[in-house]
Amino acid sequence: MSQPKPTRSKSDVKPARPVTPSPGRARHAPRKVAAPEWSPEAREALAWAHSARFFTTAAQLHQLPTSELPEVAFVGRSNAGKSTAVNTLAQQRQLAFASKTPGRTQHINLFQVGPKTAPDQVWADLPGYGYAAVDRTAKLRWQEVMAQYLELRRNLTAVVQMVDSRHGFTELDRQLLDFVAPRVRTGEVRLLVLLTKADKLNRKEQAESLRGAQAVLGEIATEDSDVGLALFSSLARIGLDDAALALRSWAAPPDVAEAAAAAAAAAAAAAQQAEHPDAPL
After folding, report:
1. Tens of pLDDT, residues 110-127
2. Most C-beta atoms within 10 A of its C-beta, which of 127, 144, 263, 271?
3. How many CB atoms lie under 10 A from the CB of residue 264?
4. Residue 76: Cβ-neighbour burial (10 angstroms; 0-12, 13-18, 19+)
5. Do strands 227-231 and 190-196 pair parallel, antiparallel, or not at all (unpaired)?
6. Which residues lie below 8 Å from residue 200, measured CB to CB, with a gap of 6+?
7. For 97-122, b where at least 16 C-beta lie within 10 A, e where not — what string?
């Protein structure tokens, strides 16, 4: 039997791809710019992200459609700015529902990204977790649904976890990380942690937030894992280009996207024929 690969240290947690300043070191706090001067690659990735559109919603795991497209799940505490970050990445104000009362969103919302005729990625916006005003029964039910999703969803390719940079990983953040950690360690699922609301910290505080998050992520990093970390701010647009580039790199190649679109169209036609058997083919 082959020997297990040694666990990587916390210094091996990478910054958000494709940012690779030096092996095993998180990047320093990015500069704040009023008018970002992004690279052509970043602009292309942001234009791709802007194509995100609502696909479907589900209250239970079995209600989610099956697909061969890579699925990226967005998770985070109810007050960590998750929905705002999704909207910022898509450059759309109301793509993800940002309730004025955190914790009210009780569904998994799916969004397709890429060409309309052949989308190449799916975003899954999971309910925020941990808000105190939500009924305990609802909390437990959604904890179970999210755990099952993160542990079992077959085409889950990556998880983007939003963590408030001012507070770091809370106990609830760590619990959610535990749900997906086994798949992250094997490299089956990539992980990108965005330290949100980074504009509210000074440079020293940003650096401390990065170090604290690195220490947590170092506990699950292995030779096979793909773990990224970056500061993020929807308001100041910190880390927006880096996150978009990472998401774009996880999209399906054109042939896979086209095959998935053809399979979806065939399934829809078969379902319609089954519902109306007397209709002409």
Report:
1. 999 999 999 999 999 998
2. 127
3. 17
4. buried
5. parallel
6. 165, 166, 233
7. ebeeebbebebbbbbbbbeeebbbbb
* 238: number of Cβ within 10 Å: 27
CA 114 to CA 101: how far, in whole Å?
Answer: 31
pLDDT over 80 at 238, yes or no? yes
Asked if 113 contacts 51 with a C-beta cutoff of 8 angstroms, the reply is yes
* pLDDT for residue 252 is more than 90: yes
One-character DSSP codes across 52-108 = -EEEEEESSGGGSPP-SS-EEEEEEBTTTTHHHHHHHHHT-SSSS---SSTT---SE
Please give the mean pLDDT across all residues of the chain: 83
Helix/strand/coil for 243: helix
3-class SS at 165?
A: coil
Residues 6+ apart with CB under 8 A from 220: 177, 181, 184, 185, 191, 227
User: pLDDT tens digit string along 149-173?
Assistant: 999 999 999 999 999 999 999 998 9
Residue 19 Cα distances to 30, 42, 56, 274, angstroms: 12, 11, 32, 49
Spatial distance between the Cα atoms of 236 and 84, rounded to a whole number of angstroms: 12
* pLDDT tens-digit readout, 20-73: 333 333 344 444 445 468 899 999 999 999 999 999 999 888 899 988 999 999
* CB of 82 closer than 8 Å to CB of 108: no
Q: Are 184 and 218 in contact (CB under 8 A)?
A: no
Asked whether residue 6 carries a pLDDT value surpassing 70, the answer given is no
